[in-house]
Amino acid sequence: MNQNITILQNLGLGSEESRIYLALLGLGGCAASLLAKEVGLKRTTVYPILTSLAEKGLVNVYFRQNKRFYYAEKPAKVAGLFHKKIESFESIIPMLESMDKKQIQMLGLRFIETIDELREFYFGILDEYRNRSYIAIGNTNIWQGHDSEFFLQFRKDRAMHNIRTKLLLTADSVKINPTDPALLREFKYLPQKYAFKSTMDIFDDKVLISSPKFSSLAVVIAIPAMVDIFQTIFEMLWDFTPEEKVK
Known about the structure:
Blueprint: H1 2-10, H2 15-27, H3 32-39, H4 43-55, E1 59-64, E2 67-72, H5 75-91, H6 93-106, E3 109-112, H7 115-128, E4 133-138, H8 140-145, H9 148-160, E5 164-169, E6 185-189, E7 199-202, E8 207-210, E9 218-221, H10 224-240
Parallel strand pairs: 4-5, 5-6
Antiparallel strand pairs: 1-2, 3-9, 4-7, 7-8, 8-9
Helix pairs in contact: 1-2, 2-4, 3-4, 7-9
């Protein structure tokens, strides 16, 4: 019996609701007075619980000779009621997830799900950072690998907008990293042992992090305190990273 009560409680019923439902199943239906004696509760306590169970679809009420008789709904039908509730909830999951993302954005986070969204972000940077500069830490192979044609052109467009960048790159980036000074890029290579696959673009008011380990393509963090930490870490790493390139 205790196990049955626990299972019903896991479905959202209260302890007394569970006891009364199980008692009605055993009795096969009865008046509230008999049910109260069966479960050891006052009749005035049992009535509101029966009303609650009836509203939830777990109890049916019938009148006989001007008296109310209560019957427990069949367990299979109760299971069907809960199944319908689950189906109803599942039908609104996309809307709820959308609401959750909006809430996350209000907290200073934005998830980029598609390559089109990522391109749109970088297009915005061209206008926002014209005649300015920003810093980045990353793996050129991974960054460029998102869309090679787009990012090769983006470097050129960035220079045309007079946007300067200061970059800390993984050692394996040397294979494809361009050295043309016309691209307005200043860069250093990190030691070989720091072989990570993520990329961080650090701007004045936000940080874009892309990583193959994310479920999303990238995340934008626009929390001032965190942006400040990323900027400070970059400058510290830049100061301690030697000028020599990887051979």
